[in-house]
Design a protein that fits this description.
The complex is a heterodimer. Chain A is α+β, with helices and mostly antiparallel strands. Helix content of chain A is 43%, strand content 19%. Chain A has a 5-stranded mixed β-sheet. In chain A, strands 6, 7, 8, 9 and 10 form a 5-stranded antiparallel β-sheet that branches. In chain A, strand 4, helix 1 and strand 5 form a beta-alpha-beta unit. In chain A, helix 5 packs across helix 8 and helix 6 runs antiparallel to helix 9. The longest helix of chain A is centred in the middle third of the chain and has 45 residues. Chain A is globular, with a radius of gyration of 29 Å. The relative contact order of chain A is 0.10. By secondary structure, chain B is an alpha+beta fold. Chain B folds into 3 domains: 71 residues, OB fold (Dihydrolipoamide Acetyltransferase, E2P), CATH 2.40.50.100; 71 residues, Beta Barrel (OB fold (Dihydrolipoamide Acetyltransferase, E2P)); 84 residues, Ribosomal Protein S8, Chain: A, domain 1 (2-Layer Sandwich). In chain B, strand 8 and strand 9 form a beta hairpin. In chain B, helix 3 runs parallel beside helix 5 and helix 4 packs antiparallel against helix 5. Chain B is globular. The chains are: A alpha+beta, B alpha+beta.
Chain lengths: 381, 282
């Protein structure tokens, strides 16, 4: 919660015990948390809570530029819209964009441009919408952090993540991450944006008076704070996917731990489906391949860890089908390619509509794509 | 990122990766694609700017860049995989990048007197001209075709498609800075008259197809639905009955959500069988 203090503020920024008014040390950040993928309609989005700030960022694009005359034939353009909600500050803010908002939009754009590959998107634009829902000092830094997260979430190529954090001075002491009051009554304020890959500075504004020594201390604080925020950014980006992975693992284990009766029933229902040339045939064929690989010294294929992970259904199926498979592997001398083709045909043979399915050529293309692209190789060696 | 093929010097985003060996199988004497054991991909989620390899022998593949100091860093949030000497990052989110020859599902969102403009979920609108959309009507008066035909007067082709129509098209041409030209003449192409179209993230499309089309075969066989997967993230489905269709849609969204996990085909299979039992779908 922001500290509600009547205006005009008094000059006091420290408690009697030497800590700041909210109990922080001089080089301590306000509580920071972030998450990504919060806006479904956007290409990428992020929510950042930094102290009392609550900021949403959403990415749209790359897409066509309107008005067209703004488009550049050699590189894409980045457009940043920083806006504050009318209810984000103590007194109602006019909803019309003012000078301050336009300026902050500009500095955020210039802070982000060096880490993007805009030359890969000629004639197009990437738009970043930043909405400040609640403001508590240091919104331009928190906005940059949110924009960086949203860009990464949108799948737009970046050289590095960036982190915004401010240093400053109040009552003669150098501080990290100024709050609203420290920002207003303090003697200096340095919002910085740090490119985390090489710790270079992408945005540096300075307002107030500071000695060189104090500035040096301020930068040390900034790098220290940026590193903490950066780790939380990475955690948020990974957490979006790790959460799903954990759920999937639980689902897997639930299927694996089914009582034997249920497993049998599932197998039976599978066998009933098999009469229609279904996927278990493909599985069989894959097992034939696996068997072959075992037979051939060439193919020293280790059983992939993914196969071990696979559900107990498959294992029980394996045992049942092993006999057949062995016979087949001796009899059949057809190549893997033939097997694959036949599996494709069996897949296609179920539907005859001219509109459906992939034709051979497109499937082959997709095969190539999937071989290179697909994130896991669980299906085949 | 409308960068089309045939660049003389590929950008890092689109560089092709060729690291599969073609080996002759001893027993069947046929050539098979094979990856050696040491080339087994290692996958982990990486973030932009993260150093993913420092070995000087490795080459930055797609989604990665090599720094001046020899470190290879990622540019996406994606899955890192090392195949042979290439380090790739497969992005987990992104836009559709039109390539010539791709089959896409477009929706008519504007008309001019001479062309249709289609939303194909890419940076530019696709252009569909009537000459690429409809065959010219002709008649041969009952004679064999070799004796010649005469052409019927052309109707106004621009009235044949309405706003909002969904069309399966193929991309004919285009470049980074030009709008792609489409055609709807050809096998599997044309106006969609039945079924429904759902949209997922284009980066998850390879997972819906699966290796060697295994996932799509599984969906077709277990749910008895017709499916057309377009490269721009749209999927046309037409089921036997609404129950099958509903389950199929849920399954496709499940695949999209869990695309980065391992053992997906098994999980999806178990899920379909379980749900079919619960819902009483035969």
């Amino acid at each position: 919660m922001p500290i509600l203090v009547p205006e005009p503020h008094d000059e006091i920024c420290f408690r009697e015990d030497g800590k700041r008014l909210d109990g922080r040390a001089v080089d301590e950040l306000r509580p920071f948390s972030c998450e990504v993928g919060v806006i479904k309609n956007a290409q990428g989005s992020a929510l950042v809570r930094h102290g009392g700030n609550l900021i949403y960022a959403a990415i749209y694009g790359p897409r066509e530029v309107h008005p067209r005359h703004l488009a550049r034939p050699d590189k894409g353009i980045l457009r940043v819209y920083y806006r504050m909600a009318t209810f984000s500050v103590h007194e109602r803010k006019s909803p019309a964009p003012n000078r301050r908002e336009n300026e902050i939009s500009k500095v955020i754009r210039e802070a982000l441009e060096p880490v993007l590959f805009l030359e890969a998107y000629p004639d197009s634009q990437i738009e970043i919408y930043i909405e400040v829902i609640a403001a508590d000092g240091g919104t331009r830094c928190a906005s940059t952090t949110a924009a960086s997260l949203a860009l990464a979430d949108a799948g737009i190529p970046m050289k590095s993540m960036v982190v915004g954090v401010a240093a400053g001075k109040a009552q003669g002491r150098v501080l990290l991450d100024l709050g609203d009051k420290e920002d207003k009554v303090g003697q200096a304020d340095i919002p910085c944006v740090v490119v985390m890959k090489d710790k270079s500075i992408s945005l540096l504004q300075f307002d107030g008076e500071m000695s060189l020594e104090e500035m040096k201390t301020g930068f040390e604080y900034v790098l220290k704070g940026a590193e903490i925020i950066y780790q939380k950014q990475l955690e948020a980006l990974r957490e979006k996917y790790n959460k799903i992975t954990r759920e999937a693992e639980i689902e897997d284990s639930a299927v694996g731990n089914l009582p034997q009766n249920e497993q049998k029933s599932i197998n039976e229902s599978q066998n009933a489906q098999d009469s229609l040339q279904n996927t278990s045939q493909i599985d069989e064929q894959m097992k034939v391949q696996n068997e072959k690989q075992e037979i051939n010294n060439d193919h020293k294929a280790e059983p992939s860890p993914l196969m071990e992970n696979s559900s107990a259904i498959n294992e029980s199926q394996k045992e049942v089908e092993k006999g057949e498979v062995e016979e087949k592997s001796k009899d059949e001398k057809s190549s893997e390619e033939n097997i694959i083709k036949s599996s494709e045909q069996s897949a296609n043979s179920t539907d005859d509509s001219p509109k459906q399915g992939e034709n051979q050529s497109s499937q082959e293309e997709q095969q190539l794509n999937t071989e290179n692209d697909s994130p896991s190789g669980d299906d085949q060696e | 990122m409308g960068i089309f093929e045939k660049r003389s010097k590929p950008l890092f985003l689109f560089s092709s990766v060729q690291n599969k060996k073609i080996v002759t199988c001893k027993s069947c004497k046929k050539k098979v694609k094979k990856m050696s054991a040491e080339n087994k991909p290692i996958r982990e989620i990486v973030t932009p700017g993260q150093v993913i390899a420092t070995d000087p022998g490795l080459i930055a593949g797609r989604g990665a860049i090599k720094e001046d100091n020899g470190q290879i860093t990622s540019v996406f949030v994606g899955l890192k995989e090392i195949r042979g000497k290439y380090v790739n990052v497969v992005p987990l989110n992104g836009l559709y990048n039109p390539q010539i020859g791709d089959k896409v599902i477009g929706r008519v969102i504007a008309k001019t007197p001479v062309k249709f403009l289609l939303d194909i979920n890419a940076k530019f609108l696709g252009i569909l001209k009537p000459s690429d959309a409809f065959k010219r009507p002709h008649q041969n008066r009952g004679y064999p075709k070799s004796m010649g035909t005469y052409r019927l007067p052309r109707e106004n082709d621009m009235d044949k498609l309405k706003m909002g129509d969904q069309i399966i098209c193929k991309i004919l041409s285009g470049s980074r800075t030009e709008e792609p030209a489409l055609t709807s003449l050809g096998q599997e192409l044309g106006l969609i008259t039945e079924g429904l179209v759902i949209a997922i993230s284009p980066t998850k499309i390879p997972r819906v197809i699966g290796k060697k089309g295994s996932m799509i075969a599984l969906l077709k066989n277990l749910l008895h639905c017709k499916i057309f997967v377009a490269q721009n993230g749209r999927i046309w489905i037409h089921g036997r009955n609404p129950e099958n269709e509903r389950l199929l849609i849920e399954v496709i969204y499940k695949i999209e959500r869990e695309a980065h996990t391992t053992g997906l085909t098994d999980r999806v299979k178990a899920y379909i069988l379980k749900e079919k039992k619960i819902r009483g779908i035969k």
